[in-house]
Amino acid sequence: MVKKVYLYGLVPTSEYEESVLPEKRGFDDEEVIHALPMGEIAAILCKLDSNAYTESFIEEKMNNDLEWLQKKAFHHHEVLMLLNKLYTVIPLSFCTIYNNEDSLITSISSQMDQLTESISRIYGKEEWNVKVFSNDEILKKKVSDSNSTIEAKRKEISSLPPGKQFFEKKKLDQLVERELEKEREQLCVHIHDELTAYAVQADVKKNWDKKATGRKENMSWNSVYLLEQNEVNRFLEEVKIQEQKMGELGLQMEATGPWPAYHFSRLGQMKK
Amino acid sequence: MPSVRETIENKEVGLIDILDVILDKGVAIKGDLIISIAGVDLVYLDLRVLISSVETLVQSYENNRKDVTSDQFDDERRALVDATGQPNKWTD
Q: Which parts form a coiled-coil structure per UniProt (chain B) (predicted)?
């Protein structure tokens, strides 16, 4: 039976030949992770039992077995972190599986130019992630105390007859809410601009729901930066500075990294 | 004293942080490496759907972790007896 192939990442063959890949069990513990050199690029992969790993099996597991998902996601992460330490790596998305080795070779070979271009783009660089979480109560108080539009509205309301005041106060609450959102967005954009100054490339990603993060605070910003290795310390110092400044406003920052360049090794043009 | 970098590097990352990056390509799957190099031969998933299902899953996983006391269990059993109208099936 022809085996399926789980592809973790793509590395320059020259780098692979210089540093040995440590022995490591594959996605299903049965097979060992190994390299398949294809000219300038080598694929880091493991074989999978074709009968066991069908599309419906994986879909079923992903949707109904969180323990499986967690175990396999950590495995994928662990392998890529190892590859990222050893080589310049184009990391593949979780569960990138080919029906057989020939299909993988055909696919990779046809993209060779773009892949080598992508490798040279991320060479010597690191990918870092910054998330901003906001405690809206603190920020709301700040906004409501210091915003001039709100202050003017409040003065206007106090001169109204009591009956009218009730409805106008309700409207004012909505205004505070809108101003809060505006303020939060502005602060996050400011943080992002300050951090982007250190980056070769930067991008903004989707925020995660509270249900997924399991935190009390809302995720207000999720961004990713590609940094020259020698800029990383300065970047992290800036994160610290912003953290202290934004802390009083109820914004918490969380930096993680260095990650394999999942975001920036994407093929094709990327803008800063 | 460890540097800022070391402190961050050694901090444990959660499942969500990992999924956030390892599904990154999947989120913008159009014109993506996986799709474009694999064509129809690839076993792939709609990762946008996956992300939303992970959000639901994590939540239900957390909700289900609470322990069921024997009182709650008995309550539920009584409710089942009422609902099914088959006392023999649900009592000892």
A: none
Question: Quick one: A204 and A218 in the same domain?
Answer: yes
For residue A180, the domain's CATH number is 3.30.70
Average pLDDT for consecutive 10-residue bins of chain A (272 residues)? 88 95 91 95 91 78 76 90 95 85 86 89 95 92 83 86 87 89 95 98 87 81 96 96 94 94 73 40
Helix, coil or strand: residue A121: helix
Q: Which residues of B touch A83 (CB under 8 A)?
A: none
Q: Is the pLDDT of residue B67 over 60?
A: no
pLDDT digits (tens, 9 = 90+) for A227-239: 999 999 999 999 9
- Name which of A64, A93, A106, A238 to mutate to probe chain B: the one with the most chain B Cβ atoms within 10 A of its Cβ: A93
A252 near A217, Cβ under 8 Å? yes
Task: Looking at the structure, tell me whether residues A22 and A58 fall in a common domain.
Answer: yes
The confidence score (pLDDT) of residue A230 equals 96
d(CA B77, CA B83): 10
Question: Phi and psi dihedrals of A34, rounded to 5?
Answer: -145, 175
State which amino acid sits at residue A26: G
Q: Of the residues A83, A107, A123, which one is the last residue of a structural domain?
A: A123
A25 and A50 share a domain? yes
Res B88: pLDDT: 57
Contact at 8 Å (CB) between A45 and A34? yes
Do the beta carbons of residue A100 and residue B45 sit within 8 Å? no
Residue A267 placed within a domain: no
Q: A80 lies in which domain range? A: 4-123
Does the pLDDT of residue B35 top 90, yes or no?
no
CB contact under 8 A, B42 and A108: no
Cis peptide before A260 (omega within 30 of 0): no
Q: B42: which chain A residues are within 8 Å (Cβ-Cβ)?
A: 96-99, 107
Euclidean distance between CA atoms A92 and B22, whole angstroms: 8
**Do residues A89 and A78 share a domain?**
yes
How many contacts does A have with B, using Cβ atoms within 8 A? Answer: 141
Question: Structural domain boundaries of chain B?
Answer: 4-85
